[in-house]
Amino acid sequence: MAGDAQEQDVTWPRPKFRYLVDIADVGTNLPFQEVSGLDVDTQSIEFRGSNNPIFSPSKVPGLKKARSVTLMKGSLANDNAFFDWHTKIGPNAIKRSTVTIKLIDEKGALVMTFTLTNALFTKVTGVEFDSDRNEVAVERIEIVCDEPVIETG
Question: What are the residues whose beta carbons fall under 8 Å from the beta carbon of 119, sequence distance 6 or more?
Fold first, then answer.
């Protein structure tokens, strides 16, 4: 039976709903509902040599660009950590941080880590109010960073 469990660990994809988020100078194991935007794009550069017999440019890799990462969480009483972090941003006063997102398995063991270095807080979206909806009050933050680093195990 042990072989079956080990094979399952290798061949079955991990669920995405167990994760921990740490933000340096803000907190650890922060209770986020959703994390999205862990993307890195590579821009392409078109190039065509003047002596190329093919009548179209070739594409070569250019600069990499990380997208904005969006974190959503329930709005908690007396919790203004993100608004406080955002107020530290101003001319010649940029507060950068490190954000770590850790995917964990059903036993709490670390499966994968996404590290966002030089994270910069770019947007805070407060709670949207609607008296016709039966939903939890959710706030969103957006951050940008240098290229995310992904590590397994």
Answer: 23, 69, 96, 97, 98, 99, 143, 144, 145
